[in-house]
Amino acid sequence: MADFVWDPIAEITTNSVPLPWHRNYCSLKYKKHFMIEQMKDLPANVVGFRATGKITKEEFDTVLIPAVDKVADATGKINYLFVLDTDVSNMSAGAWYDDMKLGLKHLLQWRKIAIASGQDGVNRATDIAKHVMPGEVRSFTLGEIDEAVNWLSI
Predict the structure, then answer these.
(1) Which of 17, 36, 125, 145 could connect to 59 by a Cys-Cys bridge, CB 3.0–4.6 Å?
(2) Cβ partners under 8 Å of residue 75, min gap 6
(3) Residue 33, pLDDT score
(4) Range of 5's domain?
(5) Is residue 144 classed as helix, strand or coil in its secondary structure?
(6) Is 82:110 a contact under the CB 8 Å cutoff?
(7) Percent helix / strand / coil, the chain, rounded to 5
(8) Burial of residue 125, with CB atoms counted within 10 A of its CB: 0-12 exposed, 13-18 middle, 19 or more buried
(9) 3-class secondary structure for 41-86?
């Protein structure tokens, strides 16, 4: 039996999901799916993310931090939406640490921060954070994401 060789070009250009006997099936099984995804279709002055499942330091380093850095470098101000669509206990210690580092790195560039969550504790903590963070900080429920986007874009 031949050894499996991963072909990234074929994986990128394949338009259908491989069946178990297809040569890309093995690589698809091990493809990394991040639990933090950058939200699309937001106003140009808003950067937003949705977190689901377990959230790791790797995801902050790979998905969230580069996107926030890009906005900060391009505009000098950050309008930030974070939708926590998972239990707060699913954030690893490394993710919390990266979150804190990101906040300090851009300390004077935060214009508006909106945190949407279905957890009262997260929303209370966000409401407390508005007293220590520069810029404006507001909490929203998961049902108020559109309102959060509107608030951030003004």
Answers:
(1) 36
(2) 45
(3) 61
(4) 1-31
(5) helix
(6) no
(7) 45, 20, 35
(8) middle
(9) CCCCCCEEEEECCCECHHHHHHHHHHHHHHHHHHHCCEEEEEEECC
- What angle do helix axes 65-75 and 93-105 make, rounded to 10 degrees? 10
pLDDT, tens digit only, all 154 positions of the chain: 444 555 544 444 444 444 444 444 444 444 456 799 999 999 999 999 999 999 999 999 999 999 999 999 999 999 999 999 999 999 999 999 999 999 999 999 999 999 999 999 999 999 999 999 989 999 999 999 999 999 999 9
Q: State whether 62 and 15 are in the same domain.
A: no
7 and 54 assigned to the same domain? no
What gap in Å lies between CA 36 and CA 57, rounded to an integer?
11
